[in-house]
Amino acid sequence: MSGCFAGNAAAAYHGGLAVNRRRTRRKPAESRVRYKTRQYTYYPHDANPRTDALTASTPQVAPLVGRARDHLAGRLHHRQAAHRRSAGEYNRGAYKFNDAVDQAVIRPVAMGYRKVTNPPVRRSFSDFFTNIRMPVTVANDLLQARPKQALQSTGRFLVNLTLGVGGFFDPASQLGLPIEDNDFGVTLARWGAPEGDFLMLPFFGPSTARDIWRLPVDSYFFDPLSLYAVNHDYNGLEYVPQAIYLVTLRSRGIDAEGFLQSAYDPYVFIRDAYRQQRLYKIYDGNPPVEIIQQMQGLNEKNFDPEELLDQQHQWENKHPETSSKQP
Questions:
Q1: pLDDT tens digits, residue range 254-304?
Q2: Whole-angstrom Cα distance, residue 11 to residue 18?
Q3: Cα atoms in the 13 Å half-sphere on the side-chain side of 125
Q4: Please, which residues bridge with residue 42 across strands?
Q5: 136 near 181, Cβ under 8 Å?
Q6: Which range is least confidently modeled, 15-29, 141-155, 158-172, 186-200?
C-alpha cells in the first residue's frame, strides 16, 4: 500500500479503533463529520497532516500500524529468503545433473576426440566453428550500434572463409583483424536490461535471467549451424555439425579441469567464473571496479576474504590429491 486511509483504515484491519469509538461519547454532528472525513480522505504515508493528532488521540494505532509494517516486512524478507533458497537448490540440482551427464557421455566422447586427433587438427576445427558462428557476433554488434566492430568481424569472417579454406585456418589474425565474441545476452546488457538471478540450466549450463534469451534469439535468427539444422532434413544428420561443435568446446575445457577439481565449492566456482566472464565481455575487458566489487560481495558488511581463504586452504589440506592436479 502506497498510502493509508486515516482513522477507519486501522479499524478495518484491526478493529481496535472501532471498539473505542463505540465507548466514546461525542455530539452526533461532530461524530458524523469526523467519520466521513476519516473514511474518504486519502493521505500518503509521508504527507498525512493528521497522523500526529490521530496517534496522540488514539495511542493504540501506532503500535498496530508498527506491528503491521513489521509483519509485512518480515513476510517479504522470508519470501525473498525462501526464493533464494529454492533457486539455489534448483541450481545445485541442475549442476549435479549436468555433471552426471558430462561424466557419463560428453567427457568420454571429448577424451576420445583428443586421442584420435592432434593439436593442429583440433585447432583447425576450433577455428572453423569460431568463424562459422561469426554472423552471431556481427548481428549483435549491429544491434548494439557498434559499426566498427561489425565491420571488423565481417572482414575477419570473409578473410578466413576465403583465404582460410572455409575457416579451417586463421589468416585474419595474422592480418591484425581482432577476434570478438558477442551475443544477444550482451546486447540486452548494453541496452540496460538487469542481469537477474543466476540460473543453471539442464544440458545448457550456467546462465542468468538475462542471458537465457541469447539461446532462442541467436539460434533462431543468427547462428548458421542452427539455421542449417532447421532448414534441412537428413534423418538427424543435420545436427552432426552442432554435435561436433559441442565436442570441440568440451575438448577445450579438459585442460582447465584442474581448477574446478581444486575448488572448495565447484558450483560456486562455476557460477562466479561465469558471471565474471560475462561482466568482462559486456565492458570489453575493462569493467568498472565498483561493479566487480559488488559482484564479488566486497561491499557487504559481513564479507571476510580472510575467512574464505582459510576455508579454501583447509579444504586443500584435506584434499591434497585434487589441489595438486591444478595446472
A1: 988 988 888 889 999 999 999 999 999 999 999 998 888 777 766 666 666
A2: 5
A3: 19
A4: 5
A5: no
A6: 15-29
